[in-house]
Task: inverse folding
């Protein structure tokens, strides 16, 4: 439509900006505005985007930057904490979603091969959407956030294997599949070993050398991201895996935060292009044909996927709240869906007629799952009654704990772990409560008094006789859980000291208003400093009030 490519890009970006302003005023997720922009400028309406290759390349850059920054946040302890359960939950979810999806597709009249590709394609969730939304909510470092990212990594690896198999069947035939899989396995082993060597002995020296110049460090970091992503793409892996690995190799350096702050604006811009490109794939004319199967598949992914993940995690002992929050993040279709289905089309296994259906399902689930993830805690709180039968039996009966504890600590890792030596040294009678089975196992091995349960569950709080304790500490940076805890204590006329944790200063203000004696903000007050504060204040309410007043002045909280 436009003679100048610059004018074309300018019109699209300005249009996205205007729609985003309207979306922001309406307090809706901005992703909706980006996808709507793509639909408007796409071939079905204004047909402004006449250079799809350029926009696709720009969107791939956004994907690379996003996963690069995710890798910067990953550390080996986080991977270790959720590695095994992520692998089990990820593979279980892909298998069950594929089986149920296949049955739905065949019931709708699709041929066997089409049903197979649709069911497998719809089994994967969008790493880009999930990571962006969790990052916006600052939930990537929460347990369910780390668990979600782990499951996504497993899904991405499974998708890579499927794409390799499709390529083998297309190019070499079924007889060569075994050799292709063997070669891919050897490549994975080589990449992991090479990454470890580079991260251990090469990256620290290079980053130390270039850190004297901020501009040079910025350029070298981007170059490193593209070098690793390009190298892995060249040997048969996706851009996503390479960019993620590039970030992981830099995660242990002292320059992680500086790199992140400089690359984040680039990531945001190119990701906007990605969602615009996604919107251009939807044709108005194709919606009518794909409407009924699109609605059915969308409902299955929006409702079925979270329930499948919840059931798998509950089977392995995880609290239904963890299963629900993790499962909701999987309630959309991945970009890999298009790649898998496109691979089937190019290989001649299925017709091009299934692509509009895949696009409609992707856009529907991405749009609606945005709201599910944004309001996941409120949704669980509203429907918690429906999952009560899945909770620990002691949380549902009228029994109470046989022992009354002076100190109750909800949440072990980080701050909780830091304060236990103080409690032990002062011979305090304490109990640690956590909903992570791995943490419970660790506490059991260390002979630390523990209990499995949800701090936001009133029945659990009654069972522990929480209102009878002298000091209650919640190290869980979840405002919904902490507000439930504070509401319970206020309702039962708690006389002791309650300390809770907030992620931001506005959240801290809300928790103070809800009745907290003291609020920990981790990026301001670390675990070691809080342990020292606990040693000084102990269970004296007046001392905690004085410390809280001092922090309120610092946070500008009235």
Result:
């Amino acid at each position: 439509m436009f003679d100048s490519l610059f004018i074309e890009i300018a019109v699209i970006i300005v249009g996205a900006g205007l729609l985003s302003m309207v979306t922001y005023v309406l307090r809706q997720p901005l992703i909706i505005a980006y996808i709507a922009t793509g639909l408007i400028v796409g071939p079905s309406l204004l047909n402004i985007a006449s250079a799809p290759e350029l926009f696709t390349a720009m969107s791939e850059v956004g994907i690379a930057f996003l996963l690069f920054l995710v890798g910067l946040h990953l550390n080996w302890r986080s991977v270790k904490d959720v590695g095994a359960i992520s692998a089990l939950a990820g593979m279980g979810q892909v298998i069950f979603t594929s089986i149920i999806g296949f049955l739905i597709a065949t019931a709708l009249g699709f041929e066997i091969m089409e049903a197979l590709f649709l069911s497998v394609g719809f089994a994967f969730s969008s790493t880009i959407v999930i990571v962006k939304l969790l990052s916006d909510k600052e939930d990537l470092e929460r347990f369910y956030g780390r668990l979600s990212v782990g499951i996504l990594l497993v899904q991405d690896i499974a998708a890579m294997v499927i794409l390799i198999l499709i390529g083998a069947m297309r190019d070499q035939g079924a007889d060569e599949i075994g050799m292709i899989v063997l070669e891919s396995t050897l490549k994975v082993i080589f990449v992991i070993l090479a990454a470890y060597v580079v991260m251990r002995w090469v990256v620290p020296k290079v980053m130390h050398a270039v850190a004297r110049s901020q501009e040079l460090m910025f350029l070298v970091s981007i170059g490193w991201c593209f070098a690793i992503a390009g190298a892995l793409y060249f040997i048969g892996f996706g851009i996503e895996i390479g960019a993620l690995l590039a970030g992981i190799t830099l995660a242990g350096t002292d320059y992680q935060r500086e790199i992140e702050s400089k690359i984040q604006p680039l990531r945001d811009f190119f990701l906007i292009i990605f969602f615009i490109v996604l919107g251009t794939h939807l044709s108005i004319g194709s919606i009518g044909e794909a409407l009924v199967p699109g609605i059915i598949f969308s409902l299955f992914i929006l409702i079925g996927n979270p329930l499948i993940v919840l059931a798998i995690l509950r089977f392995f002992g995880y609290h239904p709240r963890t299963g629900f929050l993790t499962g909701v993040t999987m309630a959309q279709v991945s970009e890999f869906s298009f790649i898998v289905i496109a691979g089937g089309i190019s290989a001649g296994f299925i017709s091009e007629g299934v692509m509009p259906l895949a696009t409609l399902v992707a856009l529907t689930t991405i749009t609606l799952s945005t709201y599910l993830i944004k309001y996941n805690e409120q949704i669980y709180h509203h429907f918690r009654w429906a999952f009560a039968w899945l909770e620990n039996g002691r949380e549902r009966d009228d029994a109470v704990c046989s022992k009354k504890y002076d100190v109750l600590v909800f949440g072990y890792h980080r701050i909780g772990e830091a304060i236990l030596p103080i409690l032990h040294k002062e011979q305090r009678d304490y109990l640690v409560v956590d909903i992570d089975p791995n943490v419970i196992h660790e506490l059991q091995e260390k002979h630390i008094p523990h209990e499995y349960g949800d701090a936001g569950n009133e029945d659990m709080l009654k069972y522990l006789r929480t209102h009878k304790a002298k000091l209650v500490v919640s190290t869980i940076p979840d405002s919904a859980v902490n507000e439930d805890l504070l509401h319970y204590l206020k309702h039962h006329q708690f006389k002791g000291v309650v300390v809770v944790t907030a992620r931001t200063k506005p959240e801290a203000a809300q928790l103070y208003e809800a009745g907290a004696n003291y609020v920990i903000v981790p990026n301001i007050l670390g675990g070691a400093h809080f342990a020292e504060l606990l040693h000084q204040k102990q269970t004296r309410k007046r001392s905690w009030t004085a410390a809280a007043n001092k922090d309120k002045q610092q946070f500008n909280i009235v």
The CA atoms of residues 486 and 515 lie 6 Å apart. Residues 177-210 form the longest helix (34 residues).
